[in-house]
Amino acid sequence: MNRSKWDQRFERADALIAAHPFAAEVLQFYKRMAMFQQTLYSHGEGACGNESGKGVSGLLEQDLNVHRLLPKFAEFLSSVEKCAPQLMAQSARDLNAQGTDRWQDLLISFWRTASDFQSSPGQPEVLLAWIFLQPQAEYLADHNGHIPGQEAMAVCPFCSRKPIVGVLRREGDGAKRSLICSMCATEWTYGRIICPACGEEAVEKLAIYTASQFDHVRVEACDTCRRYIKTVDLTKNGHAVPVVDELATMPLNLWAQQRGYVKLQANWLGI
Length: 271
Ligand SMILES: [Zn+2]
Ligand SMILES: [Zn+2]
Description:
Layout: H1 2-19, H2 24-43, H3 66-83, H4 86-98, H5 100-112, H6 114-119, H7 124-144, E1 163-171, E2 174-181, E3 187-189, E4 206-211, E5 214-222, E6 227-233, H8 242-248, H9 250-258, E7 262-263
Bound molecules: zinc ion (2 copies).
């Protein structure tokens, strides 16, 4: 099952590269990174010491098995140097030169304090730590996760990180919304008419914008807190893979930025 999850991401990236040449560079980068992530995921290497998979609380409070991850981080940085956008490639080169003590500090600090990442999502080295550690968290969530059925949570019920993208799935005659975690990829149900940033529920404060270019992706913006999230409507396009489609629809981010909205959670490019 997990193999097909990765295949779906790769295949979707290929399809979107063909459909939207303007996003090709971003998506090629995504695909290279996701392939690297798949190898990390399949080893489940740094996923916190409990190799039996039993008795783990699921939350990311345990220490990373960082010593097992450091050699992989070196490989990861070399790969980023070759395929990332310029700023991130430079950051990977700088980090590569700084050595393992610095890597260890960066990775442990990112794992323990997601708030750092959310307050400075645009820093390239923070983005690198995120991309590298994300499959560790996803592995933990997939193998140890017990997700409570709480619909009111605006952050991930597994690891408390913010959502990266929303999803609409068919339910009865309509659709229900869920959110996907930026860190562990857990998906949890969330109300359709409520801002995940501030809890606003007044319909007149919650704006939805779409563009004809991507009719299955919408910007859901809040005029109370000026935050927005993009939501991928699977009832309109069942082939979409939300995290990949989120990256491929960057013009919507720019559009929202120009209107003064701030993204709830930046993506891999810091946007
Ligand atoms: Zn999570
Ligand atoms: Zn809001």
